[in-house]
Amino acid sequence: MMAPTSSHPPSPVPAEAWAMLGRTDLEASTTWDFPSQSAGHPEAGDASFNGVTPAGCAANLVRRYTGPGELVVDPMAGSGTIGDVARALGRRVVSFDLAPRRSDIFRADARSWPLSAQTAALAVIDSPYSDNVVYSPDSRCLGRISCRDARFYEEMEKVASEAYRVLRFGGILAWIIADEYRAGVSTPVGFRLLGFLEKRFEPIDTIVLVRHHDRSASPMWEHRARRFNFFLRGFKFLLLLRKPEWTGRTSREIVAALRERVGIAAHRRQDRIVERAGRHWIAWRSRQADRVFAEIRPLRGRVQVFILPRPRDLMDSAGLARRAPRSQGWGWFRSRFELTSMAQVEPAARLIVQSYEHGVRKRNGGRARSPARNKQSL
Ligand SMILES: C[S@@+](CC[C@H](N)C(=O)[O-])C[C@H]1O[C@@H](n2cnc3c(N)ncnc32)[C@H](O)[C@@H]1O
To answer: In the structure, which protein residues have their CB atom closer than 6 angstroms to any atom of ligand 1?
Structure first.
């Protein structure tokens, strides 16, 4: 007997795409313009909070980039809009802020997230973009640093580095930021931020979030803008980026970049690095000193490195090194650290070079010098 056949040929449009067509409330273009903060989500956040995120923006991000039960992080939660929307849509939420305004938002610094690595599907960061709004008296508030000060970008880079650590591979970073125009000086904060985010993340797109309720949106300010030939801020950027998927190629690129940098340091001493590779590890030995100074293990999602000096004897400005377990490498290796992206290659290579120097010195009968004198520029 023949199997019954459907009278309709199979649709070339996947079922999920048909489902998306029904969701006309999802934004389709790169201009997002929500008439009010709470449109469609009356309970989310507090519309009177200075710098509040439009609930519609949060809903679009959560629905596009996460599934039910996945973790959404809001590390500068303010009045809590992003967490409220994500929870209402059935996602798990972690919201924190330096100055929490509600009991379900806990106190933490966005430069040190209280979360394990590779756990979140989406991080939405609506950060201060200069020192124009006083959010709290806490001296760690990033809204106390002007966007004209280089330190503003250094601190934001620490926030980005935490987002990178906590997002899973393929996870999404959404960052809301505005440019500043003050006293005749224009600062393109959005482009600068995107510039350093691209070191770790892959750009997906840039959305223009139309601003409606700024204090400067008044006839008096509009008059001044025309009279003195400047523009009022009409939008914020919503930068959308993805933490790259981890592939075997990522580990190979990291190991190759480390090898190149350590090789240069050895070459300066007329030395060469001899590499031995096992199935799960790579060992680097100084030919001159005949001493192994680093062992590298490419793992899924990270590259683990073991080196000779103790953490306290290292110049480690990025704070990567931890104590190695005694069992590692017959007890030679005293420190270990992990790389999860190419962005960590420079500080990691500096640590390996210190291990190389340490190995060479020991071989020549020298004593390990103090960390300050150990400093090696690559
Ligand atoms: C633009 S507001 C966030 C608005 C929020 N999404 C809402 O809908 O209400 C920026 C927030 O960043 C917080 N903040 C500033 N520096 C911080 C830091 N170092 N760590 C955590 N939060 C910080 C401020 O306290 C403020 O609540």
So the answer is: 45, 49, 51-53, 75-79, 81-82, 97-99, 109-111, 126-128, 135-136, 140-143
